[in-house]
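Appendix B, example 12.
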Amino acid sequence: MKTLFRSMAGRWLSAVAMLALAAPSVASTINQNVSWTIDRAGTTAKYRVVAYGDSIYAGYNGSISNAARYSAPTVDAEYLSARWNADIESVRRAKSGAVARDVYENKIVAERSYMQATSTRVVTFEMCGNDGLQARSSFKSQTGTCSYGGLDAAVNSCKTYVAAAMDFINANAHPNTRLKVISNLYYPGYNADNVQSSCRDATTGQTVNLRDRFLPALAKMNYWMCEYARQKGFQCTDSFAQYMGADYDSNGDGLVDSDALRYVAGESEASYLNRTTVTLRSTLRDANAKFVTSSSTFDYIQSDDVHPTYTGGTVTAGIWGGSSGTGAPRYTSFTDGKSPVWNRYGHDRMGWALSVYNPASP
């Protein structure tokens, strides 16, 4: 009987593991909450960064029990620790696999107490990636006549809950909060999506290129993340530009690609879409090979072709609960505001991009 029980338990755990590992690309979800304090030597003051999101801010790495210690918000905490000469508590309330509505309702709203602490100085969030991934998976499975309704629904849901999240954070974050910032979406699988669909367009009768369909939808999400940020008192970290554009001028237009792709405050949706998906389309590159110079690349995407790469170890975060911990910063000072690995890993790049908005003092 004991042998049978162990066998059944093993199969149950295996099933749970398979379900959780699939979480970021299907409807299944898994909470991955972490609190990690950057403990700077010789300091006593401690402030808090609160981050809400899905598997990106969670630091998802394919595991059901652990996640990256230094996902983007904790990287930002490291920069803040040096800037303010203080200890910084990075509180990540994340749910891998969650669509925008889930992040809004079950993280930002349900767990608002974390941003209401008097020590809170930064509140950041990201969402909508799973809305896009699920719409993409659904579209890829279509046969017969193509339906684009799922992509449109993902864009509309993203717009709805990004705006709602900003309004809620504005109303509920502690008055001591100095910075509110959102991160928009990079395009995982950019090269892999350069294939034809199995369905056919109702007008032309031809199959369509998946990337040609997905890129404008993602660009619409990104535009409204940054535009709502402008309207509602947030900053917008343009992760699309940071991941998808090279850090040099590849097309001779006089602008570094990653700068040229960035959202421009006040521009129209039509202008942004034309610039990023048409005019500068040739400068977009898959983030598996992020060009930091014309001859050097780093891999910003893990082997799942979805989640950012990271360094700095892992922490417990998954179906057995979250964790809290404390550790010395990896780096205690930053030349020109950049760590030695600022452009080598996806999470470090996103964390640096968040840090450029950090206030000079708490």
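The CA atoms of residues 96 and 130 lie 9 Å apart. Confidence is low (pLDDT under 50) at residues 1-26.
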